[in-house]
């Protein structure tokens, strides 16, 4: 076992361990931080596979964008130190069973397939090749998906603004919602808050 | 480098996918479900890059697929968080059990 293999197994153990922690921690903020570590581990796996450009995009978009967005939304909607309720035992049991069965089934197929690797050839991904093929208009060029995905990003941006904008009712100033620190448990919400909500939203 | 067989990388990505599935099954909070979806998308990306590296090392299509998936995942996360914030404003909760009516 040489160094490259050891590094691969370390990265894999890191990814899987932090991912398991991210889906089982009961504090939501810690869950987001474990997700961040898992995504960094995936970027390290891309570095190990020598696709540096995808690794850089992974770090920039996921670690710099998505996780920060998730943490912001946690701060906007939850108290970060609060515990999430544990799932019921029945649901936990069936989820574990379904996941184990699915994993065994899928990995059985993968292990039996017998991939034949291509003739051993250095897999180098120069960024110039990616850029040229990305904007190529000839065959095997990716300029059409590139443009479509740019339109999709524009539409998503405008859609996010429209969805998350607070529409003020006409003639009334926007008032702060009641109970700003409420933690997502509707059992604790008094009935008066629902009435004020219904008044506010026509 | 080539001494790691492809199935080991596929083991990692399959395990990551099913960890994400587990989170999606057990969590009842919309933000944590979104995190599980991110894990699932990452496992798909690992698959694309690994297949490209091991089976077709002279092409770049897997790299492009993973780049587009990353882009669309970012857009999806942004839209999902906008919806979650809007939902929190109208229901004061982001628990999926408590958001049963689709009207606002």
Automatic annotation (TrEMBL), chain A:
GO MF entry, a single one: NADH dehydrogenase (ubiquinone) activity
Broad class of the protein's primary localization: membrane
Annotated family: Belongs to the complex I subunit 6 family.
This protein's record includes keyword Protease: no
Keywords for this protein: Cell membrane, Membrane, NAD, Quinone, Transmembrane, Transmembrane helix
Function field: NDH-1 shuttles electrons from NADH, via FMN and iron-sulfur (Fe-S) centers, to quinones in the respiratory chain. Couples the redox reaction to proton translocation (for every two electrons transferred, four hydrogen ions are translocated across the cytoplasmic membrane), and thus conserves the redox energy in a proton gradient.
Membrane topology field: Multi-pass membrane protein
GO CC annotation, single: plasma membrane
Family annotation (Gene3D superfamilies): NADH-ubiquinone/plastoquinone oxidoreductase chain 6, subunit NuoJ
Cross-referenced InterPro entries: NADH_UbQ/plastoQ_OxRdtase_su6, Nuo/plastoQ_OxRdtase_6_NuoJ
EC number: 7.1.1.-
Ranges for region Disordered: 183-202
Cellular compartments annotated: Cell membrane
Catalyzed reactions: a quinone + NADH + 5 H(+)(in) = a quinol + NAD(+) + 4 H(+)(out)
Transmembrane region(s): 6-25, 32-49, 55-77, 89-110, 148-168
Listed name of the protein: NADH-quinone oxidoreductase subunit J
TrEMBL record, chain B:
Top-level lineage group: Bacteria
Known catalytic reactions: a quinone + NADH + 5 H(+)(in) = a quinol + NAD(+) + 4 H(+)(out)
Its membrane topology: Multi-pass membrane protein
TM ranges: 6-25, 63-88
General function of this protein: NDH-1 shuttles electrons from NADH, via FMN and iron-sulfur (Fe-S) centers, to quinones in the respiratory chain. The immediate electron acceptor for the enzyme in this species is believed to be a menaquinone. Couples the redox reaction to proton translocation (for every two electrons transferred, four hydrogen ions are translocated across the cytoplasmic membrane), and thus conserves the redox energy in a proton gradient. NDH-1 shuttles electrons from NADH, via FMN and iron-sulfur (Fe-S) centers, to quinones in the respiratory chain. The immediate electron acceptor for the enzyme in this species is believed to be ubiquinone. Couples the redox reaction to proton translocation (for every two electrons transferred, four hydrogen ions are translocated across the cytoplasmic membrane), and thus conserves the redox energy in a proton gradient.
Protein name (Swiss-Prot/TrEMBL): NADH-quinone oxidoreductase subunit K
Assigned EC number: 7.1.1.-
Subunit field text: NDH-1 is composed of 14 different subunits. Subunits NuoA, H, J, K, L, M, N constitute the membrane sector of the complex.
Biological source species: Niastella vici
Family (UniProt): Belongs to the complex I subunit 4L family.
